[in-house]
User: Fold this.
Amino acid sequence: MTTYMTLPRVLSDHELDMCCTESDSYDFLMAVRAAIPLAPRPAASSSLPVGNVTVPTLFVCGENDPYLLCTSAGAKATRNYVSAPYTYFSARCGHSLLSVGAYLGGCTNQAVRLSVMEAITSFLDDNSSPPPAPPFPWLAPTC
Assistant:
């Protein structure tokens, strides 16, 4: 295995205030910061190697996502790290794939949002196993 996970940089409150107070996402960033308090730290390489993903994987991508850049060649190359069934689904959305409206970073319209939900539902239907049968059929629920 030659791939290594990295730890992203964690900005301080001061750095976030300096760069992001005018951003539409500032309140969201602060809410995430309150919910997941992390001490500021520089980015660091990990010494733990990781292998390929071995479970069915759905990569749902907003074409206009300014954060994940999921239409880039690098993002599309994630399929190279999945040794199980892989599905890439791209939609006319921003980062918020389950909302509608540019001000929310959502999908361009309700039909696109519904296509995202359908892609997720279909993937789960196609890749979920039915629950195992009870060991004794007479113990199975009757309703």
